[in-house]
Amino acid sequence: MWRIGAALGITGAASANYLLHKNENTGRYQLLIIPEFILDMLCKVAKAQLEKNQAIIEHDKKVYQCISEISSTITQHIDSKKTWNLTVIDSKVVNACALSDGSIYVYTGLVDLVEEPEELAFIMCHELSHVILNHTAEKVSVRIFVYLLWQLVIFYFIGGDLDLSFIKDLLVNLPLSRAAETEADIQGLKLMYKAGFGVQGAVEMMKKFKELDMEGSSALLATHPLSKDRSEVLKSEIKKIGENSSKVVENLKIRKLFKDAKSEIKENKESKEEILQTSPA
């Protein structure tokens, strides 16, 4: 029995070594075994789940225009052939995510939470950095690699069918590692700086993360576990790359768009509350 285990271990290690790829941004080796077309198929499943029974914000709304402006300002500084596609969901949920096919999702609850456009820009840069750094592809590859090895062992010794039902939830609910979160923080900060957003917005967003963590009310923190060291890492990186003024926010009038978006969200909340109060019991 131990020989079989040893053989599987050696085979797994050899296969992993062959399939490891060095990330040019971080210098870290990643296991990437999932073809892009498979990831795209998984993204379709994830998008269907994300959009199911959700109210999608129309493109003519202020909140969409604000997020779209921030998004396009950031993505033009990303060296990628991906076609970025933004969807804004009308929900109290404080969350945002970016899928490996270029799909970006932002919930209005996040916009309602932040006080400055730089804070929102950091979250978006962080999420886009997960895509840039192949974190989703790595997560899927590692979990499928380990899972299939385990399933093959069960299949070989016990028999039965391989259970692949877990794949449909892989892109939606499973969190990334703390190492990946730190990498996305650092890469996101660099992207933020490159796009011209004030990097102190990242530090301010971390303060809000701490408050949300204490309340336990954020979907964003459910898949992005808060580390006490993340704020310190960001401050250290800011010392390396330097402070920068938010010229892009002024030049593109993002502040006005942001202000209008916040007002629109407030009006919508008041309107919904009014409807609830006037509705018959």
From TrEMBL:
Its cofactor is Zn(2+). The keyword Metal-binding applies. Pfam families: Peptidase_M48. GO terms for molecular function: metal ion binding; metalloendopeptidase activity. GO terms for biological process: proteolysis involved in protein catabolic process. InterPro entries: Mito/Outer_Membr_Metalloprot, Peptidase_M48. Gene3D superfamilies: Metalloproteases ('zincins'), catalytic domain. Binds 1 zinc ion per subunit. Signal peptide: none annotated. One of its GO terms (cellular component) is membrane. Residues 77-237 form the Peptidase M48 domain. Keywords: Hydrolase, Metal-binding, Metalloprotease, Protease, Zinc. Coiled coil: none annotated. Belongs to the peptidase M48 family. PANTHER family: METALLOENDOPEPTIDASE OMA1, METALLOENDOPEPTIDASE OMA1, MITOCHONDRIAL. This is Peptidase M48 domain-containing protein. It comes from Stentor coeruleus.
